[in-house]
Design a protein that fits this description.
The chain is mainly alpha-helical and about 130 residues long. Helix content is about 50%, strand content about 0%. About 5% of the residues are buried. About 20% of the residues have low confidence.
Length: about 130
């Protein structure tokens, strides 16, 4: 999205970093540039307002739930693995890290399916019904 007007900070940059702005996770100098952009760009200001409203709604509706201690520990463990530069498998993000997780190789993993996958139907045809096992 762009309003088509020239700005000191491009609309695409503002929208790309909108959540950093909303969460106050950017340097003050960048925040000031974004605020100035919102003053002169109504489409970006509208998008900002919408995202801000969604964030407030989520906080109001979901902000009271307690995070289970084991889930918090698992997530924090994953964050520490990432920060230390170790590979983290893409599987179940709630699974506790194991010794094999910490020493994972850079080789891609292959997944095996328990059931054969159906081929996509040709346009204009009806796909076959799934078979039960």
């Amino acid at each position: 999205m762009s309003c088509g007007e020239p700005h000191e900070t491009d609309c695409s940059e503002v929208l790309e970093h909108l959540y950093e702005f909303l969460d106050s996770e950017m340097p003050e100098v960048d925040r000031t540039k974004f605020e100035h952009h919102f003053e002169e760009c109504s489409p970006c200001l509208e998008k900002y307002g919408l995202e801000q409203a969604v964030k407030k709604l989520v906080k109001r509706c979901c902000g009271h739930d307690e995070v289970p201690a084991d889930l918090r520990a698992k997530v924090m463990g994953r964050i520490e693995l990432i920060r230390s530069g170790q590979l983290v498998p893409e599987g179940d993000v709630t699974a506790a890290p194991t010794a094999s997780t910490k020493t994972a190789s850079a080789k891609p993993t292959t997944q095996t399916a328990s059931a054969p996958t159906a081929k996509p139907a040709k346009p204009g045809t009806t796909p076959p019904a799934p078979q039960e096992s």
